[in-house]
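Bit of a strange request maybe. I'm writing a small parser for structure token strings and I need a real example to test against, not something I typed by hand. Could someone generate the tokens for this chain?
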Amino acid sequence: MTIVALGVARRKAGDKLRSIAATIGIGAASTAPCRGFPRAAGPSMNDLYRQRFDLDPTLGFHSPLLADLHGYWLKKRGAGAMPRRRDIDPLDPELRPHLGFVVLTDVVAPERFRFRLVGSLLAEAVGRDSTGKYLDEVYSPADYERMILAYRWVVAHRAPLRVTGNLRHANRAWISMESVDLPLSSDGRGVDMILTRSVLGTA
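Reply from user aminoacidic:
Good idea to test on real output. This should exercise your parser:
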């Protein structure tokens, strides 16, 4: 085989491998937008499996459930920057459609967060329950930096944030996700808890 023919054969083999990789979701194909929820045109972060999360401060909700919970948050906020933690009553009938998919995260320090509560339906959907755990206990240092990017934004801006991307079910398939992070405060000034509601689809 001539050098030219060998080069052509190698290029063809490379093209075939790239085609197979794209088909099964390796490489660039694995970071394609998840089906079900449109992506936000904003900053992004990666989770521990390198899937993108997009941050949307404009709150362009696709799910009416998230818009509904945001409306509840606005009502509880009143004239303040955000609701106080005591303003959110789990027994409130308006929260019933959300409770199984709600996560309450304590802002322990500017750079440390703890899952106070992970809703039972969400824990079942992703195959793990991290209630009571600090995020830096759940994720490696490098992954932790990516996972708290949305929380950092909410704490710094004291404002809600929409997030879209893919979650990994423990030992199973990807799950597409749209969520909203809503800041809460005990003193009406600083964010010391974040209320998250997620809506799951299929990746």
